[in-house]
Structures are given as structure tokens and as C-alpha cells.
Amino acid sequence: MTLNQLVYDIKNIISGGTQSDDIRISDRQVAFWINQARATLIGQLLSDGKSIPDALIQHLECVELECVDAAECCEISTCAKVLKSVQKIPETIGRNNRNTILSVSSPDKTVGFTETTYFRQRTNRHNKYTGNKPRWFTKNNYLYVTNEKVLEYVSLSGIFEDPTEALLFTDCDKNPCFTWDSEYPITSRIASVVTSMILKERIGIMASTPNDQTNNANGNIENGQASQAQG
User: Is 195 buried (19+), middle (13-18) or exposed (0-12) by CB count in 10 A?
Assistant: First the structure.
């Protein structure tokens, strides 16, 4: 199921199966509602402590990194390096006041990173046994990783609040990580509830607003008012 299919389905229901240019709701608006309803439902799922279906997870296979301080990158074989994602990472749906980044690794999956925090990472290096262990943390929506060697990319998996933000990332072959024709990260059950929520909570409100009665997409509310305006 793709985002385009979800948007089309909702707009098709609104129009009674006969879509026309007079449908005053844009695809982007419907997509925003879909993302919002999905995030609400998944947030409830996570707060209940239920397991996470694989269908909800998105993968950014080649998140580009840069050295926090270029001067630190001259001797890559010595101490651990601190690297930062070039782009901000998409906001994830919260779970117990934590993010839902589920894994960070090297693109070939040979190096796995352990989650830490911006504050803890300052003291991690002093640990006798795990000081050089590869780690990751986030700050201001950027991903940081510490590793003994400089990496150009890492792979990241998570549950993003707005799945379309993955449009800004590509895989290692430079293909976009997400398009409106990609598999949308949702289960069929959640998709059904999302559609019902939008039709009830969004379209129900819009149905009470004036419509274009002349069916000419000019925004005329009704013929009578148009005539008065001309008079």
C-alpha cells in the first residue's frame, strides 16, 4: 500500500467515486492528515507496550556523516572519532519519553552502534572495558556516532513521525529512500482506522462548509449569491 493509494482512496470516497477538479482538498493536505492520524495511532500502540510490527519501520540505508571537527579526522587510526549526520534525522514517534530509532549500524551491518546520550557519551570514553565501543546519540535532531574509524555513512532504522521526510535521503545507489509510490509504513488494520478517522474528524467538518454548487471550480457558493454580486 502506497501513500498515493491511500490518498486516492480517501479522495475517491469523498467524491463518491467520481473525482473531479472541484474537490477542494489537495493531495498534500490528505497526506498530512494520513501522517498525523498514523502517528497518533502508533503513539497509542507504543504507549501500551505492544510489539512493533515490521511494517511500521523505515530504513535509511546511507545516512551521510561528517566529522564534528575536521582537525580530529587527520589521524583516523588513533582515538575514537565523533561523527555527525550531514542532514537532520526525521523526528521519530516517542515511546516512554524516548525516540524510536531502533538500530544504527554500518551500511554493511558489520559494525553495530549502541545507544547513549549526549551527556553520557562524555564519560563513556573513560570506561576501561567499553570506552571504545561504537555508540550513537542524537542532539538537535542530528545523529552523532563515535567510532575508532571514520565512516562516511551509517544505516538507520526507526519509526518516523512523518514518513515522507525520508524523501530527503537516498540509499547507497542514490535511489530515494521513500517516494509516494513506495510501500507506506503502515499495517492494513491501522490504515483502515486512519481512513475512518479522516472521514469522520476531517471531512465531516469540511462537509459543513459551503461547496461549489455551480460545479465549475470557480468557488461560487451558490447561484443566488453570485447573481447578487453581479447586481
Answer: middle
